[in-house]
Amino acid sequence: MHEIAISREKRNLGRPEAAKLIRRAVKTALKAQGVEDGCSVSVLLTDDAGIRNINRENRGIDAPTDVLSFPLNELTEGAFDPASCERDLDSGRLLLGDMVLNLQRCAAQGEEFGHGFDRELSYLTVHSVLHLLGYDHLDEGERKRRMRQREEEIMALLGL
Question: Domain containing 123 — which CATH number?
Answer without folding.
Answer: 3.40.390.30
